Amino acid sequence: NIPLNDSLAFRFDASARSRDGYVHDITSNDDINTTNRWAGRGQMLWDISPNATLRVIADGAATHEVCCGITPLLYGTTDLVIAGILGGPSGIVPGFVPHAPTLADPSIGFNSQTDSRNMTVTPGRNYNERTQEQGISAQLDWDLGFGHLTSITADRSWQSVRNQDIDFNKIDISYRDGLRVAFQNFSEELRLQGEAGRLNWLGGGDYGDEKMHQTDTIRVGTQVNQYTSFAVLGGTGALPCGGGELFNFTAASSIFECAAGMLPTAPARAAALAAVDAVNSGYISPNASGMGQQADNWSVHTQNWAVFTHDEFNITDRLQLTVGARYNSETKDLGAHLNSVANSCTTLQAMESGTVGFFGPGVGAVTFLDNVLSGALSSTMNLACNPAINTISNGNWAGSSDENFWTYLASLSYHLNDSTMVYAGYSRGYKAGGYNVDRSGFDVLPSLTAVGNCSTPFALGRVCVDDLHFKPEFTDAYEVGFRSSPFGRGSTFNLTAFYEQIHDYQLNAFNGFNFITRNVPEVISEGVELETSVRPMEGLALNAGVTYNDAHYDSQVRFSPLTAPLGAADPNAVFKGEVLSFAPQWVVTGGASYELRLGANYHAMFYVDGRWNDGYRTQTLARDPLGRTDNSAFAIFNARIGVGPRDDRWSVELWARNLTDEFFFVGAFQPPLQNSYVVFPNEPRTVGFELRGRW
Question: Which residue of 229, 455, 526, 672 sits 20 to 30 Å from the alpha carbon of 444, by its own alpha carbon?
Fold first, then answer.
């Protein structure tokens, strides 16, 4: 803090943080999930007059980290393909326990040492990530006599560049080569607040402008052709024709020649075989390393404004009515220029075009394979031409959305006495819709040779920006409870019962490439929360809480027509009554802090907190059917000890997070083009040292 004169002061804060990585790549012996970041902030406070102040804040931050690593959990049959390409088990981390696959459990083994947090990364690929952000804001507070005026103006920007080994294993199937994302935000908020008798009123408005630009580069690696061809050869061996491969790598016949052999009559088989062999000798062309997204450029421009009021009216000295309303208006404009190059996609489409009619009316070899066993082989064709690189989505695309909605609240509170209050309330909440900036969100299949526009039915395949859009989310929330201070100030005992009905819930799920948001019509969240705190003696503060929350889907949605025939086993669906991921039913928290005086001028500080929760899911879509990606119940404890002067001019602190070194899954998913399961592991016990100073 630097006082420049009686009305002007300046303050500067800076911080730096570094931490070793806790996921280990056994291939390179490097660590992943590192932390290396700094931040700085300068503030100026100007007392313009006795009634007005202006605070200006400028800040900046940067990171240079390696994130985010996984550890294998369940190994699938595609791991046998990987081992075959590597010539042995060098791509499997220590702890692999094999077992024979069954119908109920098609995996071939599991990792018994997930808490070792080991993984394998393709040599030459990495998870390097750099971010920068900067911003400036100005807050004017002005007492006008009849009311208090506040104006907050801010401008911020954020940029990142990120690499990723997106196959999450040792062989080079696919990678992300410099994903670039940038945001530019401007906002203005104006509020006027005052009192008139029993009424405490507030009104205002805000405006926001956000520009987002993204360039994605999901590309295929040097071993993608071997992997996809051998995976198809092994995955189709149970077909009546004996299976086949995509590319002409071995003496095996092609999968399309195999398909021709499945037709019912000899003339049909002969005609189809001739048609297949006339297209690139019956095979598709392999991809060169680096093919895929050359530059998928996306932009989203969002503008929003709102006017609002929040008012409290004291009906009596003990009874208070609170009402509020907000009108929200938001527009989004999407633009995309998509450019992918993939030999496998163009020749796969040529195979379909050249064989249409030979496998049935309007049906070519690729569509025929997609339809075999009620679509069970659709993932096989995705190996050849994944939606993330499908060239049929190339081009310039544009879309827009416009949302105008009211949100509001009302609550009634009554003070039974000076230390106890009961209340009941209702609120209507709103969360804006948006766009998934990812070409795999288009409704395209590997068999498509031409796509329609937004007026084309889903079943026929189309490139339509409307399919990238997700709708706004609304929440009707009901709450009753009481607040009390049973032992005076410094103590609390609060109990709340809540019921929330969420409409068009925005489900955000990771597909291995990106997080994709989809709408679920109805979600219910209901429960009870208890919070308490007390200061039983000087320097000691205790707090505890218990929450019961039953959060579940109240509707059924199938997101993919390809897997819909699988019924209850559909991995791309949510079902009524299913619990939400990352939503434990029971959560218990607690904490304690103690300040010990050391003479007249110094003190020591002791702090510990903990959280226990019961088990919960870490996946929604493509979840392991046996629930092995779920977390069991666990508890996390943190602690901090510090010493310094009582005016807090400086302090030296020793801290520990996850004190008991508990292990759990932060998330789980199936890597792209594979049938294994991997997890994001949590941070292990971490001990650190912190020095704080103020001048």
Answer: 229
